[in-house]
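Subject: Sanity check before I submit

Could someone independently write out the structure tokens for this chain? I want to compare against mine line by line before I put it in a report. The sequence has 413 residues.
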Amino acid sequence: MRQFIQDFVTTCRNIFLTIWSLFVIYIAPHGTYHKGDYAFLVHPRGYWDIWKPFPFFRYFGERFTYWVSWFLPPILLSRITGLKTLDGKPLTGLLIAAMNMPAHMKATLFGVQVGGIISRWRTVQDARLAEKLGSKHTGLGAYLPSLTNYGRVLTQKLKRSRITTGHSMTAYIIVQYVKMAAEIRKVKLPSVTVGIVGAAGSTGRACALALARDGNIGRFLLIDLPHRQDKLEKEVAVPLRKNGHEVVTDCRLERLREAHIVITVTTAPGTIIKPEHLAEKAVVVDDSQPRNTSPDLLKQRPDVTVVDVLAEVPGLDCHFDFDLVKERPDINFTCLAEVAVLAAHQVTGHWSVGYVGMDKVDGIAAMSSVVGKEDAGGQFHCVMPAPLCSFGQLVTNPISTVARMLSVKENVR
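---
Independent answer below. Compare away.
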């Protein structure tokens, strides 16, 4: 009974916060409420995420939650603490969410995908709330970059806040994880085939170009949807071939059996990477949110390793449970790490908007090396790839630490 009452009170309080959000967005003058210096915008990956701020909804089931969340305004979930500028000034971040799940985004009416249109409008609401609350840098998480044409829509709607999708940091971190994977499997990168699922997107393209330049990958297997094959060929495969790399493009996941390392960076909801798609001892680097892999994959294929794409931001704490590494609040999403680094450097102008170039990947890598904090012994810890994690659990592997440190030192420019 006590839990029931607590859930009811929490839900009522957060519903009031959503109403307050509407007041801030549409009525309150800019500057009336200064709550933070930067913001990270997210959306629920599934019902479980909606039930965190609105736990009372779980008593009514998924169908009720689905329909009610259509009408919920944005909500300020928490404040992000622990970040400082390079000159030591504390910065407060805002974690803001609109309650649209992938199921909402894919909803259709009379054959028209109205869910995407509504979700894009709600993302603009999110960004305006962040701007009204003082955010100078706003990062986009999960599906929000693709909903907003990789941030381009928001750059046209906002006047005071700079936008970033986080794709530069994500590409940089993934390159490091691929090098770690090669170390763990004791293979040399020129002899490796890397499969990229979602290769025609902004992150997939940046990963391919960065790996071609920094990783000296022997062969690329680029996978994307049938209607994106022309784009995949022109914008990703052709530049790679010009630099002497062997490249294969396809739309079939079965081709992944040819890959030693698989990178998944799609916006496909749910589990699309199946046991039968993977080669023996394959390493899957999963950046998708919601995930494209399932824990059941490891049960059926114990020879396979699944790596979460996460960043370590020393001192940072979101004060919200993303179902990542619970004992390490400083381990978080790479897109959040990017906006934190930009805020710490007080960068002027938008960063990862549209398709990401190598200049942005190099820039965020260099800036990350000087953002962080000192420990009790006076040793400085910067923003870097998180220790190897799989489905929110730290992976105990001695070689991971060595490879991690080597790759960070070698690739910061």
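---
OP: Matches mine. For the report I'm noting this point. The longest strand covers residues 75-84.
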